[in-house]
Design a protein that fits this description.
Length: about 70
Amino acid sequence: TTAVMNRLGSVKDIGVHQIAFSHDGRFIAWKENARPSMLWVWDVKRDCLLTNVVFVSPVVAFQWSPIECR
């Protein structure tokens, strides 16, 4: 297990750091610790990845708009 952990890095770098459902529950957005500059968006209704957005800087926090469209 030590060899595996050495390859993977520290435990804090593994897994999902933040997750949020859209106001209507149709989409889930999340960011992973291993890819802090990437935001993933999953379409729950279609059960597929909708998109992933890559930012120049790490994503610190995010949230969905509380209304459908702006």
